[in-house]
Amino acid sequence: MSTPPNLGSMPSVDEPPVAPAFAKPRAVAPAWHTVIFVVATLGLTAVQAHQQPRLQTLNLPSRVPVYAVMIFFEFFMFGYVWIGLRAADTPLRDIIGGKWRTPFDFLVDVGIALGFWCAVAGVLIGMNLALGKNNAGIEAVKALIPRTVVEMVVWVFLATTAGFCEEFIFRGYLQRQFLALTGKAELAVVFQATIFGVAHMYQGWRGVVIITVYGALFGGLAVWRKSLRPGMMQHAMQDTFSGLVGSFALRRHMF
Length: 255
Prior knowledge:
Mean pLDDT: 87
Number of strands: 0
Low-confidence stretches: 7-11
Largest sheet: none
Number of helices: 9
């Protein structure tokens, strides 16, 4: 005679399914690749901070060669990151995130970028007032401000390149790597923003603090939207606007 099944041990049809265990985010590149990136970035930052005062004293006939070197460096860093992503079979679209299926999707990101720009401007103005005048940062930026029409055109290309590459590298690649390491989005945002801020050491300690907060705001936007697109737009627009307005102000001896 067979033993009847133990009905008490059988799950109820009304019982909800058990939620799967939390999966730790996957690294988007090998760990060694990120270690090299961070060490190289900090090393180049120290060299740039040492050389920046010399750039400020040079009477450059044109800033186009300087912009060209900066553009090359942006794409060089992007290329290095791309190699790491390839090693881990991570598509570029997974880092950028988001998708524009309709023109309305694009306009939504544009609207978010503009609203975020206003919020960022308010935070940066407040921090500048709280920390005091950043003479080192002002002098460093003045040395790079375009003077001629040709320089302005190249500056726009530089600003667009920086908006895409830096958001991809810091808020995409690096933030995702720290997320995989720590499992916490908040820590990932803080760590990438800190490295991003230190990478601007040539603007002095006040500049480092301000740009660290700036990077954290972009990191938070990327987490919220699960996309780098609005941040890339805002970054490119703000850099373009800063350079062109700075050129106007410099020609009129406003600073």
